[in-house]
Amino acid sequence: MRPSLCFIVSSLLFGGLFGCVTPPESNKEPSNSMTTIPGQPQPEVWFPVTTEQAFAEAREQDKAVFLYWGAVWCPPCNELKSNVFVKERFAQLMQDYIPVYLDGDTEQAQVWGDRLQISGYPTVLILDADQNELFRMNASVNLEEFEHLIASLKDRKRQLSTAIERVKAAQMQEADWRVLAFSDWAQLAGKDAEPARKLALLRSAASSIPSAFKREKVLLTTQLLTLAAAEAKDAATQELRSLVKAEGERYLAVVFADAMSIEAARVYITSAAGATARWLYGTPSEGSYKRFKQRWLSAAEQIAQSTNVSQDTRLSSVNPTLDFLRFEQKPLDQDPQLRAHVQAAVAKATSEAKHPFERHAVISGAAYLLRQVGDYAGAETLLKAEIKRTDTPWYYYTSLASLEQARGKAEAARVWAAKARESAQGRATKIQWITNDMILNGKDLSPENKPYLIQLAREYHALAMELGDGFVGRNRLRAERVRESLAGLKEDPEFRTIVQAFQTRCERLEGDNRRNCQSHFEALQVR
User: Fold this and answer.
1) What is the rounded distance in angstroms from the CA atom of residue 57 to the CA atom of residue 73?
2) With helix as H, strand as E and coil as C, how does 218-275 read?
3) pLDDT tens digits, one per residue of 240-272
4) What residue ranges of the chain have pLDDT lower than 50?
5) The model scores a pTM over 0.85
6) Three-state secondary structure along 366-391?
7) Other beta carbons within 10 Å of 351
8) Burial 210-230 (b: 16+ CB within 10 A, else e)
């Protein structure tokens, strides 16, 4: 399954997001009491101390660990909270697990991110007491789907790797299908993660799953179509893409079979229209493409009217219309009827999204849609109004910066980006928002802007060095973006002084954090 519109939007905001932190007293993992984390649904449900202790408790009680990794500002995280974590039934389902809420801004969260190979918010992992991964998911699910999945994971011997081996041997068992269908194939590790092998496995699974597993068949099919629509360079993957394309009508018939299938495929339908059209047709035409488009838009309309999906998903049902227009190379901002349609969808979603978690999931996507159809004023009004009521204003400041950038107002974009950076709260969050500001300013090396960029470099490195996890987990990924943004300053004398001053501090850090720190500064040296 692929992310919904809220995830697409968050990834477009300068490539990432960031805040004010208190340096840790040591690198030892402290208590991360769930009652101290803002935006935490049902705090009494979650294990109250450290992740390390959660695994010890799992061993003692012979339970698996249910680990959620996310952030309070992340729209897809808030959709998951709204759909699942706030429900009373979720607390009942967690009685068979040791549930861990690992907010990305708690101490050692990024260390655990590296240890568990997590990079994207949100990620849900189910692990045994020895930290062996049984399941991984980062897609949008509702409570019914979540409960359906949890029931299939009670047998801790049913790991994803085991299910994959049984696909290869054509010896699938009932619970394997659910594990395969709800797993995040985009994060598959090892040799089976190679595109050709993964595509072959998905094709085999989607073709052999019994008809009784209708929802699972739809989910496997959409993952197969998503992977097949992606560009490929190697010959083996290209050949498999062609085979799937030749069977495309059969696979699409599974997706669009009925209301239940469409609802199960909602993330694919709302996010993959353009990519699928380009893969299947290359260029828009009448005939088969027109019929394909009509069928897809009809399914999107069913999602818009469904009461079984989230507000964000209903709003995302607008996205296929925009995707098809882009594929047809038609402007989105010159059609009054389209603009009115988007405005009506946004008004409905934002008025009906009452809970803070719902609003976190909906607002940035709503502003993005308005921007796509040229309603910059409407997007600006929406974002500024939400800033007054949200607990994560920096996210919307960043959206405003992105909006001004799209308007061609570079200086206004910089002002909002700076405001976002200054207001952001949290260890990893602050790192990410400083990086965002740097990405926005990194291409402008004019005499007027260079001092600001150098100041950002100084602020970023000072913060990264204060933390025990400044160069691991998502923070390591931010360091890569920082290096890209500062590449043009390598020979600047003032910048070289900053590099030399901070580089020596790497020795104070430990383990991977120290090694990554050293590599970071080596890459910033003039060669």
Assistant:
1) 30
2) HHHHHHHHHHHHCCCCCHHHHHHHHHHHHCHHHHHHHHCCCHHHHHHCHHHHHHCHHH
3) 999 999 999 999 999 999 999 999 999 999 999
4) 1-36
5) yes
6) HHHHHHHCCCHHHHHHHHHHHHCCCC
7) 9
8) eeebbbbbbbbbbbbbbbbbe
